Structures are given as structure tokens and as C-alpha cells.
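[Q] Does anyone have a clean C-alpha cell version of this?
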Amino acid sequence: MTDCLFCRMVAGEIPADVVHETDRVLAFRDINPQAPTHVLVIPKQHHPTVGALALADPSLLGEVVVGAQTVAEQEGLVDDGGAEPGFRIVTNTGRQAGQTVHHVHLHVLGGRGLTWPPG
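[A] Here you go.
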């Protein structure tokens, strides 16, 4: 999709601070971070929402979730038996939920205490 911001990032038309990449998944730092670690994990193939991706290609959704776990490990957010790290994975679906880019993406947030409910 030529008008999709994330598709343009995948195509290399828009620069991204990439932290993880596979043949089907891309992870990059959010340009407006809401936590010390804020990385977006996307499928390289365009799907507008997590539900649409789950219906179209469940294995790709699994790869995106594995990408989020990989990012959390790389960023030191996974408990290694020492400190008490942790992270949150968030996906927004639709305008009411705050989705502004209609290409499914998981937010990996961490590096500080995260409150509940999120707001």
C-alpha cells in the first residue's frame, strides 16, 4: 500500500531505527516514545488490524508476537533472575482505541513501572 506509513518503512522509503528484523517482521523504535523502551513490531505484509492478521495468516501473527518477545529480551525487559524487569505488549484496533496507523503493530513498552488501567 503506497499510502501506508509502515509499508513505506518496510520498503525503505522512510527511515526507521530498526532494532530487529526477519524476513516477515520488522521492529523499530517509536518516534514518540511513551516509556524508556517503546518499540513497534509489525508484519512486513500489510494487514490493518490484529484481528485481520489473525484471520488471514495466524502463523504470521505468531511471528510478530515472537518478534515482540525478542525485542523485550534484547532490551533487557525479561526477568533474568536479578532485577524485576517487565514489559507490556499493546495493540490498538480502531479509532476509539487510538489506532492512528492502520497497519497492525504491537507496542513493546518497558523500562519503567506501568500502571493499570492504562487509560
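[Q] Thanks! Anything notable?
[A] Residues 58-74 form the longest helix (17 residues).
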